[in-house]
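Two records follow; treat each independently.
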Amino acid sequence: MTLDTITDVAGITVGHFTHAQRATGCTVVLCPQGAAAGVDVRGGAPGTRETDLLRPENLVDRVHAVLLTGGSAFGLDAAAGVMRWLEEHGHGFAVGTLRVPIVPAAVLFDLWHGDARVRPDAAAGHAACVAATAAPPAQGSVGAGAGATVGKLFGVERAMRGGIGTASVRAGGITVGALMAVNATGDVFDPHDGELVAGARKTATSHALLRSAEAMLRGELPQRPMPGSATTIGVIATDAQLDKAQCAKLASMAHDGLARTIVPAHTPFDGDTLFALATGGSGRSASLALLGTMAAEATARAVVHAVRHATSLPGWPAARDLGPAL
Protein backbone atom coordinates (compact mmCIF):
# COMPACT_ATOMS: atom_id res chain seq x y z
CA MET A 1 0.00 0.00 0.00
CA THR A 2 1.28 3.46 -0.86
CA LEU A 3 0.46 6.52 1.23
CA ASP A 4 1.29 9.16 -1.42
CA THR A 5 4.46 10.30 0.35
CA ILE A 6 8.20 10.19 -0.25
CA THR A 7 8.50 7.74 2.65
CA ASP A 8 6.76 5.15 0.46
CA VAL A 9 10.31 4.60 -0.78
CA ALA A 10 11.75 2.02 1.62
CA GLY A 11 14.81 3.24 3.50
CA ILE A 12 13.80 6.91 3.35
CA THR A 13 12.79 8.78 6.50
CA VAL A 14 11.80 12.45 6.90
CA GLY A 15 12.04 14.76 9.89
CA HIS A 16 10.92 18.37 10.38
CA PHE A 17 12.11 21.06 12.76
CA THR A 18 9.80 24.08 13.01
CA HIS A 19 11.08 27.06 14.99
CA ALA A 20 8.88 28.21 17.88
CA GLN A 21 9.98 31.87 17.66
CA ARG A 22 9.40 32.58 14.00
CA ALA A 23 7.95 30.92 10.92
CA THR A 24 11.04 29.10 9.72
CA GLY A 25 12.53 25.64 9.97
CA CYS A 26 14.26 22.79 8.19
CA THR A 27 13.47 19.35 6.87
CA VAL A 28 15.84 16.41 6.51
CA VAL A 29 15.51 13.42 4.18
CA LEU A 30 17.61 10.64 5.70
CA CYS A 31 19.07 7.68 3.80
CA PRO A 32 21.72 6.72 6.37
CA GLN A 33 22.87 3.55 4.60
CA GLY A 34 23.71 5.68 1.57
CA ALA A 35 22.00 6.40 -1.74
CA ALA A 36 23.20 7.39 -5.19
CA ALA A 37 22.40 11.05 -5.75
CA GLY A 38 22.23 13.77 -8.37
CA VAL A 39 21.13 17.40 -8.50
CA ASP A 40 19.77 19.86 -11.01
CA VAL A 41 19.74 23.62 -10.34
CA ARG A 42 17.43 25.70 -12.56
CA GLY A 43 16.77 28.92 -10.66
CA GLY A 44 18.97 31.97 -11.05
CA ALA A 45 19.66 32.51 -7.34
CA PRO A 46 20.44 29.19 -5.64
CA GLY A 47 21.80 28.65 -2.15
CA THR A 48 23.34 25.19 -1.87
CA ARG A 49 25.94 23.00 -0.17
CA GLU A 50 27.86 19.92 -1.40
CA THR A 51 26.41 19.98 -4.92
CA ASP A 52 29.73 19.75 -6.78
CA LEU A 53 30.46 16.33 -5.30
CA LEU A 54 27.29 15.06 -7.00
CA ARG A 55 28.82 15.57 -10.44
CA PRO A 56 29.17 12.10 -12.02
CA GLU A 57 32.94 12.41 -12.51
CA ASN A 58 33.64 13.14 -8.84
CA LEU A 59 34.69 10.57 -6.25
CA VAL A 60 31.92 10.31 -3.66
CA ASP A 61 29.17 8.11 -5.04
CA ARG A 62 26.63 8.07 -2.18
CA VAL A 63 25.04 10.56 0.20
CA HIS A 64 23.49 9.96 3.62
CA ALA A 65 20.93 12.77 3.85
CA VAL A 66 19.62 15.83 2.04
CA LEU A 67 18.68 18.96 3.96
CA LEU A 68 16.04 21.48 2.88
CA THR A 69 16.07 24.59 5.02
CA GLY A 70 14.73 28.08 5.50
CA GLY A 71 16.83 30.98 6.70
CA SER A 72 18.40 31.84 3.34
CA ALA A 73 22.17 31.17 3.26
CA PHE A 74 22.29 31.32 7.06
CA GLY A 75 20.20 28.16 7.15
CA LEU A 76 23.03 26.09 5.68
CA ASP A 77 24.37 25.95 9.26
CA ALA A 78 21.70 23.31 9.93
CA ALA A 79 23.60 20.79 7.79
CA ALA A 80 26.28 20.59 10.49
CA GLY A 81 23.66 19.22 12.88
CA VAL A 82 22.60 16.60 10.35
CA MET A 83 26.25 15.56 9.99
CA ARG A 84 26.59 15.33 13.76
CA TRP A 85 23.55 13.04 14.06
CA LEU A 86 24.80 10.77 11.28
CA GLU A 87 28.26 10.63 12.86
CA GLU A 88 26.74 9.74 16.23
CA HIS A 89 25.01 6.79 14.55
CA GLY A 90 28.06 5.59 12.63
CA HIS A 91 27.00 6.63 9.14
CA GLY A 92 29.21 8.26 6.52
CA PHE A 93 31.75 7.90 3.75
CA ALA A 94 34.60 5.72 4.95
CA VAL A 95 37.94 7.53 5.19
CA GLY A 96 40.33 5.16 6.93
CA THR A 97 38.87 4.54 10.37
CA LEU A 98 36.65 7.63 10.12
CA ARG A 99 33.24 8.09 8.57
CA VAL A 100 32.35 11.44 7.02
CA PRO A 101 28.60 11.95 6.49
CA ILE A 102 27.73 13.47 3.11
CA VAL A 103 24.86 15.95 3.40
CA PRO A 104 23.97 18.11 0.38
CA ALA A 105 21.61 20.97 1.21
CA ALA A 106 19.57 23.76 -0.35
CA VAL A 107 17.99 26.85 1.19
CA LEU A 108 15.00 29.08 0.57
CA PHE A 109 14.45 32.70 1.57
CA ASP A 110 11.93 33.17 4.41
CA LEU A 111 13.31 36.24 6.20
CA TRP A 112 10.35 38.49 5.36
CA HIS A 113 8.58 38.32 8.71
CA GLY A 114 9.55 38.30 12.36
CA ASP A 115 13.10 38.54 13.66
CA ALA A 116 15.35 37.59 10.73
CA ARG A 117 18.10 36.68 13.21
CA VAL A 118 16.03 33.60 14.10
CA ARG A 119 16.85 30.90 11.57
CA PRO A 120 17.73 27.20 11.45
CA ASP A 121 21.12 26.29 12.94
CA ALA A 122 23.03 23.10 13.72
CA ALA A 123 20.74 22.32 16.66
CA ALA A 124 17.74 22.59 14.31
CA GLY A 125 19.29 20.16 11.83
CA HIS A 126 20.06 17.68 14.59
CA ALA A 127 16.51 17.98 15.95
CA ALA A 128 15.06 17.29 12.50
CA CYS A 129 17.09 14.04 12.37
CA VAL A 130 15.88 13.00 15.81
CA ALA A 131 12.30 13.56 14.61
CA ALA A 132 12.75 11.60 11.36
CA THR A 133 10.46 8.61 10.78
CA ALA A 134 9.09 6.54 7.92
CA ALA A 135 5.56 7.75 8.73
CA PRO A 136 3.89 10.19 6.32
CA PRO A 137 5.50 13.58 7.04
CA ALA A 138 3.43 16.59 8.00
CA GLN A 139 2.67 18.94 5.12
CA GLY A 140 2.02 22.66 4.79
CA SER A 141 3.50 25.26 7.13
CA VAL A 142 6.10 23.08 8.84
CA GLY A 143 9.83 22.42 8.57
CA ALA A 144 11.46 24.03 5.55
CA GLY A 145 8.04 25.24 4.43
CA ALA A 146 7.16 27.03 7.69
CA GLY A 147 7.89 30.52 6.34
CA ALA A 148 7.32 29.89 2.65
CA THR A 149 5.30 32.22 0.41
CA VAL A 150 4.26 32.17 -3.26
CA GLY A 151 3.10 34.74 -5.80
CA LYS A 152 5.66 37.48 -5.14
CA LEU A 153 6.09 38.96 -8.62
CA PHE A 154 3.92 41.97 -7.80
CA GLY A 155 5.30 42.51 -4.30
CA VAL A 156 5.62 40.29 -1.27
CA GLU A 157 2.75 42.18 0.38
CA ARG A 158 0.43 40.60 -2.24
CA ALA A 159 1.82 37.08 -1.80
CA MET A 160 0.20 33.99 -0.26
CA ARG A 161 1.46 31.13 1.82
CA GLY A 162 3.57 28.36 0.38
CA GLY A 163 4.66 25.29 2.33
CA ILE A 164 6.07 21.80 2.09
CA GLY A 165 4.32 18.89 0.39
CA THR A 166 4.91 15.31 -0.62
CA ALA A 167 3.56 12.71 -3.06
CA SER A 168 4.52 9.39 -4.64
CA VAL A 169 3.90 7.35 -7.77
CA ARG A 170 4.30 3.59 -8.24
CA ALA A 171 4.65 1.73 -11.57
CA GLY A 172 6.37 -1.43 -12.72
CA GLY A 173 7.28 -2.45 -9.18
CA ILE A 174 9.18 0.82 -8.62
CA THR A 175 8.27 3.77 -6.39
CA VAL A 176 9.20 7.41 -6.96
CA GLY A 177 8.42 9.97 -4.26
CA ALA A 178 8.85 13.72 -4.01
CA LEU A 179 9.15 16.22 -1.16
CA MET A 180 8.91 19.91 -2.16
CA ALA A 181 9.40 23.11 -0.15
CA VAL A 182 7.48 25.66 -2.21
CA ASN A 183 8.51 29.31 -1.84
CA ALA A 184 8.10 30.39 -5.44
CA THR A 185 8.09 33.79 -7.09
CA GLY A 186 5.32 32.55 -9.38
CA ASP A 187 1.74 31.34 -8.87
CA VAL A 188 0.80 27.71 -8.17
CA PHE A 189 -1.66 25.86 -10.41
CA ASP A 190 -3.10 22.36 -10.16
CA PRO A 191 -2.09 20.88 -13.55
CA HIS A 192 -4.81 18.24 -13.43
CA ASP A 193 -7.68 20.71 -13.68
CA GLY A 194 -5.95 24.03 -14.38
CA GLU A 195 -7.13 25.55 -11.09
CA LEU A 196 -5.11 28.49 -9.76
CA VAL A 197 -4.50 27.37 -6.17
CA ALA A 198 -2.42 30.24 -4.76
CA GLY A 199 -0.48 33.22 -6.04
CA ALA A 200 -0.29 36.97 -6.30
CA ARG A 201 -3.44 38.80 -5.15
CA LYS A 202 -4.93 41.81 -6.89
CA THR A 203 -4.26 43.94 -3.82
CA ALA A 204 -2.59 43.42 -0.45
CA THR A 205 -6.01 43.29 1.26
CA SER A 206 -7.86 41.19 -1.33
CA HIS A 207 -8.38 37.45 -1.65
CA ALA A 208 -8.95 37.80 -5.40
CA LEU A 209 -6.06 36.37 -7.42
CA LEU A 210 -4.26 38.32 -10.14
CA ARG A 211 -2.86 35.54 -12.38
CA SER A 212 0.66 36.91 -12.62
CA ALA A 213 1.68 35.59 -16.05
CA GLU A 214 -1.50 36.86 -17.70
CA ALA A 215 -1.02 40.24 -16.02
CA MET A 216 2.52 40.52 -17.38
CA LEU A 217 1.40 39.57 -20.88
CA ARG A 218 -1.20 42.34 -20.67
CA GLY A 219 1.65 44.75 -20.03
CA GLU A 220 1.46 45.08 -16.25
CA LEU A 221 5.02 45.31 -14.99
CA PRO A 222 5.93 43.32 -11.88
CA GLN A 223 8.08 44.66 -9.12
CA ARG A 224 11.75 43.70 -9.20
CA PRO A 225 12.13 41.21 -6.35
CA MET A 226 15.34 40.99 -4.40
CA PRO A 227 17.60 38.29 -5.91
CA GLY A 228 17.29 35.04 -4.00
CA SER A 229 14.06 36.07 -2.30
CA ALA A 230 12.11 33.02 -3.43
CA THR A 231 12.97 29.39 -4.40
CA THR A 232 11.39 25.95 -4.62
CA ILE A 233 13.68 23.19 -3.37
CA GLY A 234 13.02 19.49 -3.14
CA VAL A 235 14.05 15.86 -3.11
CA ILE A 236 13.05 13.05 -5.45
CA ALA A 237 13.62 9.54 -4.09
CA THR A 238 13.25 6.17 -5.79
CA ASP A 239 13.95 2.55 -4.97
CA ALA A 240 15.15 1.94 -8.53
CA GLN A 241 18.79 1.11 -9.21
CA LEU A 242 20.50 4.21 -10.63
CA ASP A 243 24.00 5.65 -10.74
CA LYS A 244 24.98 9.29 -10.17
CA ALA A 245 24.59 10.32 -13.80
CA GLN A 246 21.14 8.76 -13.98
CA CYS A 247 20.16 10.48 -10.72
CA ALA A 248 21.19 13.82 -12.22
CA LYS A 249 18.95 13.16 -15.23
CA LEU A 250 16.09 12.15 -12.93
CA ALA A 251 16.43 15.44 -11.03
CA SER A 252 16.44 17.29 -14.35
CA MET A 253 13.26 15.61 -15.55
CA ALA A 254 11.55 16.24 -12.21
CA HIS A 255 11.80 19.98 -12.91
CA ASP A 256 9.05 19.42 -15.51
CA GLY A 257 6.74 19.04 -12.52
CA LEU A 258 7.70 22.50 -11.28
CA ALA A 259 7.05 24.00 -14.71
CA ARG A 260 3.58 22.43 -14.80
CA THR A 261 2.55 23.86 -11.46
CA ILE A 262 4.52 27.10 -10.91
CA VAL A 263 4.01 29.96 -13.38
CA PRO A 264 6.50 31.42 -14.02
CA ALA A 265 9.06 28.91 -12.73
CA HIS A 266 12.87 29.06 -12.65
CA THR A 267 13.00 32.86 -12.61
CA PRO A 268 16.19 34.85 -11.97
CA PHE A 269 14.90 35.45 -8.43
CA ASP A 270 14.31 31.77 -7.57
CA GLY A 271 16.99 29.28 -6.62
CA ASP A 272 15.03 26.23 -7.77
CA THR A 273 17.08 23.14 -6.89
CA LEU A 274 16.03 19.48 -6.98
CA PHE A 275 18.00 16.52 -5.65
CA ALA A 276 17.39 12.92 -6.68
CA LEU A 277 18.17 9.89 -4.49
CA ALA A 278 18.20 6.24 -5.58
CA THR A 279 18.31 3.59 -2.86
CA GLY A 280 18.16 0.60 -5.23
CA GLY A 281 15.95 -1.15 -2.69
CA SER A 282 13.54 -2.57 -5.27
CA GLY A 283 16.37 -4.46 -6.96
CA ARG A 284 14.96 -3.23 -10.27
CA SER A 285 16.16 -0.90 -13.00
CA ALA A 286 13.86 1.01 -15.32
CA SER A 287 13.89 3.36 -18.27
CA LEU A 288 14.65 6.94 -17.32
CA ALA A 289 11.77 7.91 -19.58
CA LEU A 290 9.45 6.12 -17.16
CA LEU A 291 11.21 7.26 -13.99
CA GLY A 292 11.37 10.87 -15.17
CA THR A 293 7.66 10.84 -15.99
CA MET A 294 6.93 9.47 -12.52
CA ALA A 295 9.22 12.05 -10.91
CA ALA A 296 7.57 14.97 -12.71
CA GLU A 297 4.13 13.74 -11.69
CA ALA A 298 5.13 13.27 -8.05
CA THR A 299 6.80 16.69 -8.03
CA ALA A 300 3.73 18.44 -9.45
CA ARG A 301 1.42 16.81 -6.93
CA ALA A 302 3.77 17.56 -4.04
CA VAL A 303 3.82 21.26 -4.99
CA VAL A 304 0.01 21.42 -4.98
CA HIS A 305 -0.16 19.53 -1.67
CA ALA A 306 2.27 22.03 -0.15
CA VAL A 307 0.05 25.06 -0.77
CA ARG A 308 -3.24 23.27 -0.06
CA HIS A 309 -1.99 22.24 3.41
CA ALA A 310 -0.50 25.64 4.26
CA THR A 311 -1.89 27.87 6.99
CA SER A 312 -2.01 31.68 7.01
CA LEU A 313 0.26 34.25 8.61
CA PRO A 314 -0.77 37.85 9.26
CA GLY A 315 -0.80 39.53 5.86
CA TRP A 316 -0.41 36.29 3.91
CA PRO A 317 -3.54 34.16 3.48
CA ALA A 318 -3.38 30.49 2.59
CA ALA A 319 -5.19 28.68 -0.22
CA ARG A 320 -7.69 27.28 2.28
CA ASP A 321 -8.70 30.86 3.19
CA LEU A 322 -9.79 31.87 -0.30
CA GLY A 323 -13.10 30.04 -0.49
CA PRO A 324 -15.47 31.42 -3.15
CA ALA A 325 -13.12 34.39 -3.78
CA LEU A 326 -10.86 32.06 -5.78
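The next record belongs to a different protein.
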Amino acid sequence: MPASPFVTVIPGDDPPQIQGSPHLDRLRAYGEVVLYTDRPKTVEERVLRARDAICLLNSRGAVHWPREVLRQLPRLRMISVCGIGTDAVDLETAHELGIVVCNLPGRTAPIVAEHALALMLATARRTWFQTNELKCGRWTSQYNLSLRGKTLGLVGAGSIAAETARLGRAIGMRVRAWTYHPSAQRAQSLGVEFVPFDELLGTSDVISLHLKLTEQSRGLIGRSELARMKPEALLINTARGALVDSTALADALNAGRLGGAGIDVFEQEPVPPGHPLLSCAHVVLTPHNADQTTEGMEILNSGAVDNIIAFLEGRPQNRVE
Protein backbone atom coordinates (compact mmCIF):
# COMPACT_ATOMS: atom_id res chain seq x y z
CA MET A 1 0.00 0.00 0.00
CA PRO A 2 1.20 3.56 -0.66
CA ALA A 3 2.66 5.46 2.27
CA SER A 4 0.37 8.48 1.80
CA PRO A 5 -3.18 9.04 0.45
CA PHE A 6 -3.56 9.67 -3.23
CA VAL A 7 -6.27 10.63 -5.68
CA THR A 8 -7.16 8.84 -8.90
CA VAL A 9 -9.30 10.89 -11.30
CA ILE A 10 -11.45 9.53 -14.13
CA PRO A 11 -11.86 12.79 -16.03
CA GLY A 12 -14.71 12.05 -18.47
CA ASP A 13 -16.39 8.63 -18.58
CA ASP A 14 -18.72 9.45 -21.47
CA PRO A 15 -20.14 7.27 -22.97
CA PRO A 16 -20.20 5.22 -19.74
CA GLN A 17 -17.44 2.65 -19.51
CA ILE A 18 -15.97 2.22 -16.05
CA GLN A 19 -18.61 3.88 -13.89
CA GLY A 20 -20.30 1.19 -11.82
CA SER A 21 -17.47 -1.27 -12.40
CA PRO A 22 -16.56 -3.38 -9.35
CA HIS A 23 -12.90 -2.82 -10.24
CA LEU A 24 -13.20 0.73 -8.91
CA ASP A 25 -13.68 -0.76 -5.44
CA ARG A 26 -10.22 -2.33 -5.73
CA LEU A 27 -8.83 1.09 -6.55
CA ARG A 28 -10.65 2.79 -3.65
CA ALA A 29 -8.72 0.55 -1.27
CA TYR A 30 -5.68 2.66 -2.19
CA GLY A 31 -7.24 6.12 -1.86
CA GLU A 32 -9.85 8.49 -3.21
CA VAL A 33 -11.36 7.89 -6.66
CA VAL A 34 -13.02 10.89 -8.34
CA LEU A 35 -15.24 10.01 -11.29
CA TYR A 36 -16.74 12.48 -13.79
CA THR A 37 -19.53 11.12 -15.98
CA ASP A 38 -19.40 13.92 -18.57
CA ARG A 39 -16.53 15.05 -20.74
CA PRO A 40 -14.63 18.25 -19.86
CA LYS A 41 -15.55 20.92 -22.40
CA THR A 42 -12.55 23.22 -22.05
CA VAL A 43 -8.84 23.08 -21.23
CA GLU A 44 -9.57 24.90 -17.99
CA GLU A 45 -12.12 22.27 -16.99
CA ARG A 46 -9.66 19.46 -17.70
CA VAL A 47 -7.03 21.14 -15.52
CA LEU A 48 -9.56 21.77 -12.75
CA ARG A 49 -10.69 18.15 -12.71
CA ALA A 50 -7.19 16.67 -12.76
CA ARG A 51 -5.27 19.15 -10.62
CA ASP A 52 -5.26 16.93 -7.49
CA ALA A 53 -4.71 13.66 -9.32
CA ILE A 54 -1.68 11.51 -8.79
CA CYS A 55 -3.12 9.00 -11.28
CA LEU A 56 -5.46 9.55 -14.20
CA LEU A 57 -7.59 6.74 -15.58
CA ASN A 58 -8.45 7.91 -19.09
CA SER A 59 -11.43 5.71 -19.86
CA ARG A 60 -12.21 7.63 -23.06
CA GLY A 61 -9.59 8.51 -25.67
CA ALA A 62 -11.67 11.54 -26.66
CA VAL A 63 -10.35 13.30 -23.52
CA HIS A 64 -6.95 14.60 -24.63
CA TRP A 65 -3.90 15.50 -22.56
CA PRO A 66 -1.68 17.81 -24.61
CA ARG A 67 1.44 19.66 -23.46
CA GLU A 68 -0.36 22.77 -22.19
CA VAL A 69 -2.59 20.68 -19.91
CA LEU A 70 0.05 18.28 -18.57
CA ARG A 71 2.31 21.18 -17.61
CA GLN A 72 -0.43 22.47 -15.30
CA LEU A 73 -0.67 19.18 -13.34
CA PRO A 74 2.41 19.08 -11.06
CA ARG A 75 0.96 16.29 -8.84
CA LEU A 76 0.30 13.92 -11.75
CA ARG A 77 2.58 10.88 -11.79
CA MET A 78 0.76 8.30 -13.89
CA ILE A 79 -1.84 7.94 -16.69
CA SER A 80 -3.59 4.64 -17.39
CA VAL A 81 -5.48 4.38 -20.69
CA CYS A 82 -8.29 1.90 -21.36
CA GLY A 83 -6.87 0.33 -24.49
CA ILE A 84 -3.77 0.11 -26.61
CA GLY A 85 -3.92 3.58 -28.19
CA THR A 86 -2.07 6.43 -26.46
CA ASP A 87 -2.60 9.19 -29.03
CA ALA A 88 -4.79 11.10 -26.54
CA VAL A 89 -1.65 11.75 -24.45
CA ASP A 90 1.33 13.90 -25.43
CA LEU A 91 3.86 11.17 -24.70
CA GLU A 92 6.91 13.38 -25.23
CA THR A 93 5.72 15.86 -22.60
CA ALA A 94 4.64 13.08 -20.25
CA HIS A 95 8.10 11.51 -20.39
CA GLU A 96 9.72 14.92 -19.97
CA LEU A 97 7.66 15.51 -16.80
CA GLY A 98 8.26 12.01 -15.43
CA ILE A 99 4.64 10.92 -15.90
CA VAL A 100 4.35 7.18 -16.46
CA VAL A 101 1.87 6.22 -19.21
CA CYS A 102 0.51 2.66 -19.28
CA ASN A 103 -1.72 0.95 -21.84
CA LEU A 104 -3.23 -2.48 -22.51
CA PRO A 105 -1.41 -3.95 -25.51
CA GLY A 106 -3.22 -6.77 -27.28
CA ARG A 107 -5.74 -7.54 -24.53
CA THR A 108 -8.85 -7.02 -26.67
CA ALA A 109 -7.29 -7.93 -30.02
CA PRO A 110 -9.64 -10.90 -30.71
CA ILE A 111 -12.69 -8.75 -29.92
CA VAL A 112 -11.61 -5.86 -32.16
CA ALA A 113 -10.66 -8.26 -34.96
CA GLU A 114 -14.12 -9.83 -34.74
CA HIS A 115 -15.60 -6.36 -35.25
CA ALA A 116 -13.32 -5.76 -38.23
CA LEU A 117 -14.58 -9.00 -39.75
CA ALA A 118 -18.19 -7.98 -39.02
CA LEU A 119 -17.64 -4.66 -40.82
CA MET A 120 -16.00 -6.51 -43.69
CA LEU A 121 -18.92 -8.91 -44.12
CA ALA A 122 -21.58 -6.24 -43.64
CA THR A 123 -19.91 -3.97 -46.19
CA ALA A 124 -19.33 -6.76 -48.70
CA ARG A 125 -22.97 -7.87 -48.45
CA ARG A 126 -24.24 -4.27 -48.43
CA THR A 127 -26.39 -4.95 -45.38
CA TRP A 128 -26.97 -1.33 -44.38
CA PHE A 129 -27.75 -0.23 -47.95
CA GLN A 130 -30.21 -3.07 -48.51
CA THR A 131 -31.84 -2.63 -45.09
CA ASN A 132 -32.34 1.05 -45.83
CA GLU A 133 -33.77 0.31 -49.28
CA LEU A 134 -36.32 -2.09 -47.78
CA LYS A 135 -37.27 0.43 -45.08
CA CYS A 136 -37.88 2.97 -47.83
CA GLY A 137 -40.20 0.51 -49.63
CA ARG A 138 -37.76 -0.37 -52.40
CA TRP A 139 -36.83 -3.91 -53.52
CA THR A 140 -33.41 -3.09 -54.94
CA SER A 141 -31.35 -5.79 -56.62
CA GLN A 142 -27.60 -5.24 -56.48
CA TYR A 143 -24.70 -7.65 -56.57
CA ASN A 144 -22.81 -8.24 -53.35
CA LEU A 145 -19.16 -9.19 -52.92
CA SER A 146 -18.05 -12.69 -51.92
CA LEU A 147 -14.95 -12.63 -49.72
CA ARG A 148 -13.89 -16.25 -50.14
CA GLY A 149 -10.89 -16.36 -52.48
CA LYS A 150 -10.37 -12.61 -52.27
CA THR A 151 -7.26 -10.80 -51.00
CA LEU A 152 -7.27 -9.13 -47.59
CA GLY A 153 -4.59 -6.47 -47.24
CA LEU A 154 -3.61 -5.59 -43.69
CA VAL A 155 -2.04 -2.20 -42.99
CA GLY A 156 -0.15 -2.87 -39.77
CA ALA A 157 1.21 -6.01 -38.15
CA GLY A 158 0.27 -5.88 -34.47
CA SER A 159 -1.92 -8.14 -32.37
CA ILE A 160 -5.23 -6.98 -33.89
CA ALA A 161 -3.85 -7.42 -37.40
CA ALA A 162 -2.73 -10.94 -36.46
CA GLU A 163 -6.22 -11.85 -35.24
CA THR A 164 -7.82 -10.28 -38.32
CA ALA A 165 -5.47 -12.31 -40.52
CA ARG A 166 -6.57 -15.49 -38.75
CA LEU A 167 -10.26 -14.67 -39.25
CA GLY A 168 -9.69 -13.73 -42.88
CA ARG A 169 -8.01 -17.05 -43.57
CA ALA A 170 -10.87 -18.84 -41.76
CA ILE A 171 -13.35 -17.61 -44.38
CA GLY A 172 -11.02 -18.48 -47.24
CA MET A 173 -9.27 -15.18 -47.92
CA ARG A 174 -5.68 -14.76 -49.02
CA VAL A 175 -3.93 -12.42 -46.57
CA ARG A 176 -1.07 -10.02 -47.26
CA ALA A 177 0.27 -7.15 -45.16
CA TRP A 178 2.35 -4.00 -45.05
CA THR A 179 4.05 -2.41 -42.05
CA TYR A 180 6.59 0.34 -41.45
CA HIS A 181 9.01 -2.23 -40.03
CA PRO A 182 8.73 -5.55 -41.91
CA SER A 183 10.92 -8.50 -41.03
CA ALA A 184 10.99 -12.21 -41.77
CA GLN A 185 10.27 -12.93 -38.11
CA ARG A 186 7.18 -10.68 -38.06
CA ALA A 187 5.95 -12.20 -41.33
CA GLN A 188 6.32 -15.70 -39.90
CA SER A 189 4.53 -14.83 -36.64
CA LEU A 190 1.70 -13.16 -38.57
CA GLY A 191 1.59 -15.95 -41.13
CA VAL A 192 1.48 -13.52 -44.05
CA GLU A 193 3.61 -12.13 -46.84
CA PHE A 194 4.76 -8.52 -46.51
CA VAL A 195 4.49 -6.48 -49.73
CA PRO A 196 5.17 -2.81 -50.62
CA PHE A 197 2.41 -0.36 -49.73
CA ASP A 198 1.47 0.53 -53.31
CA GLU A 199 1.27 -3.15 -54.22
CA LEU A 200 -0.98 -3.85 -51.24
CA LEU A 201 -3.32 -1.02 -52.25
CA GLY A 202 -3.48 -2.08 -55.89
CA THR A 203 -3.98 -5.83 -55.41
CA SER A 204 -6.22 -6.12 -52.33
CA ASP A 205 -9.98 -6.59 -52.44
CA VAL A 206 -10.24 -5.45 -48.83
CA ILE A 207 -7.88 -3.04 -47.05
CA SER A 208 -8.09 -3.23 -43.24
CA LEU A 209 -6.27 -0.61 -41.15
CA HIS A 210 -4.48 -1.62 -37.93
CA LEU A 211 -1.93 1.14 -37.26
CA LYS A 212 -1.54 3.40 -34.26
CA LEU A 213 -1.96 7.10 -34.95
CA THR A 214 1.33 8.99 -35.18
CA GLU A 215 2.47 12.01 -37.17
CA GLN A 216 3.87 9.52 -39.67
CA SER A 217 0.60 7.60 -40.11
CA ARG A 218 -1.80 10.56 -39.95
CA GLY A 219 -3.59 10.90 -43.31
CA LEU A 220 -1.99 7.70 -44.62
CA ILE A 221 -5.03 6.96 -46.79
CA GLY A 222 -5.76 10.03 -48.90
CA ARG A 223 -6.95 10.73 -52.42
CA SER A 224 -3.91 9.28 -54.17
CA GLU A 225 -3.99 6.09 -52.09
CA LEU A 226 -7.73 5.63 -52.66
CA ALA A 227 -7.16 6.11 -56.40
CA ARG A 228 -4.69 3.19 -56.38
CA MET A 229 -7.24 0.80 -54.88
CA LYS A 230 -9.44 -1.43 -57.02
CA PRO A 231 -12.75 0.29 -57.90
CA GLU A 232 -14.72 -2.48 -56.16
CA ALA A 233 -12.41 -2.71 -53.13
CA LEU A 234 -13.54 -2.19 -49.53
CA LEU A 235 -11.82 -0.08 -46.87
CA ILE A 236 -12.17 -1.14 -43.20
CA ASN A 237 -10.95 1.06 -40.34
CA THR A 238 -11.04 -0.03 -36.69
CA ALA A 239 -7.80 1.80 -35.81
CA ARG A 240 -7.97 5.61 -35.72
CA GLY A 241 -10.11 7.97 -37.78
CA ALA A 242 -7.30 10.36 -38.65
CA LEU A 243 -5.50 7.65 -40.63
CA VAL A 244 -8.01 8.36 -43.43
CA ASP A 245 -9.03 11.52 -45.28
CA SER A 246 -12.80 11.14 -44.77
CA THR A 247 -13.72 13.73 -47.40
CA ALA A 248 -11.60 11.95 -50.00
CA LEU A 249 -13.13 8.61 -48.97
CA ALA A 250 -16.68 9.97 -49.26
CA ASP A 251 -15.89 11.44 -52.68
CA ALA A 252 -14.52 8.09 -53.89
CA LEU A 253 -17.58 6.22 -52.59
CA ASN A 254 -20.09 8.67 -54.04
CA ALA A 255 -18.34 8.60 -57.42
CA GLY A 256 -18.36 4.79 -57.53
CA ARG A 257 -14.56 4.59 -57.42
CA LEU A 258 -14.67 2.32 -54.36
CA GLY A 259 -16.94 -0.57 -53.45
CA GLY A 260 -17.67 0.36 -49.85
CA ALA A 261 -16.27 1.18 -46.42
CA GLY A 262 -16.73 -0.12 -42.88
CA ILE A 263 -15.71 2.54 -40.37
CA ASP A 264 -15.61 2.37 -36.56
CA VAL A 265 -13.42 5.42 -35.88
CA PHE A 266 -13.58 9.07 -36.86
CA GLU A 267 -11.36 12.17 -36.70
CA GLN A 268 -13.93 13.86 -34.45
CA GLU A 269 -15.98 11.83 -31.99
CA PRO A 270 -18.92 11.89 -31.54
CA VAL A 271 -19.39 12.30 -35.28
CA PRO A 272 -20.69 15.81 -36.03
CA PRO A 273 -23.77 16.39 -38.18
CA GLY A 274 -22.80 16.82 -41.80
CA HIS A 275 -19.81 14.47 -41.65
CA PRO A 276 -19.19 13.45 -45.29
CA LEU A 277 -19.50 9.70 -44.66
CA LEU A 278 -23.02 10.06 -43.23
CA SER A 279 -24.38 10.77 -46.72
CA CYS A 280 -22.71 7.78 -48.41
CA ALA A 281 -24.84 4.81 -49.46
CA HIS A 282 -22.30 2.00 -49.30
CA VAL A 283 -20.90 2.42 -45.81
CA VAL A 284 -21.35 0.61 -42.51
CA LEU A 285 -20.62 2.92 -39.57
CA THR A 286 -20.26 2.13 -35.86
CA PRO A 287 -19.51 4.57 -33.00
CA HIS A 288 -15.96 3.53 -32.03
CA ASN A 289 -17.24 0.47 -30.18
CA ALA A 290 -15.19 -2.36 -31.67
CA ASP A 291 -14.08 -3.54 -28.23
CA GLN A 292 -17.29 -2.69 -26.41
CA THR A 293 -18.72 -6.06 -25.60
CA THR A 294 -19.36 -7.29 -22.07
CA GLU A 295 -16.13 -9.26 -22.26
CA GLY A 296 -14.22 -6.36 -23.79
CA MET A 297 -15.28 -3.89 -21.11
CA GLU A 298 -14.27 -6.32 -18.38
CA ILE A 299 -10.83 -6.77 -19.93
CA LEU A 300 -10.29 -3.01 -20.35
CA ASN A 301 -11.61 -1.91 -16.98
CA SER A 302 -9.77 -4.58 -15.01
CA GLY A 303 -6.56 -3.97 -16.97
CA ALA A 304 -6.60 -0.20 -16.51
CA VAL A 305 -7.11 -0.60 -12.76
CA ASP A 306 -4.42 -3.31 -12.60
CA ASN A 307 -1.96 -0.88 -14.21
CA ILE A 308 -2.66 1.82 -11.61
CA ILE A 309 -2.35 -0.62 -8.69
CA ALA A 310 0.89 -2.02 -10.09
CA PHE A 311 2.29 1.52 -10.37
CA LEU A 312 1.28 2.40 -6.82
CA GLU A 313 2.90 -0.77 -5.53
CA GLY A 314 6.17 0.18 -7.21
CA ARG A 315 6.04 -2.38 -10.02
CA PRO A 316 4.79 -0.45 -13.09
CA GLN A 317 3.67 -2.63 -15.97
CA ASN A 318 2.73 -2.01 -19.62
CA ARG A 319 4.73 1.22 -19.69
CA VAL A 320 4.66 3.06 -22.99
CA GLU A 321 8.19 4.18 -23.80
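Discussion point: The domain at 109-285 is CATH 3.40.50.720 (Rossmann fold). How would you locate this feature using only the C-alpha coordinate line?
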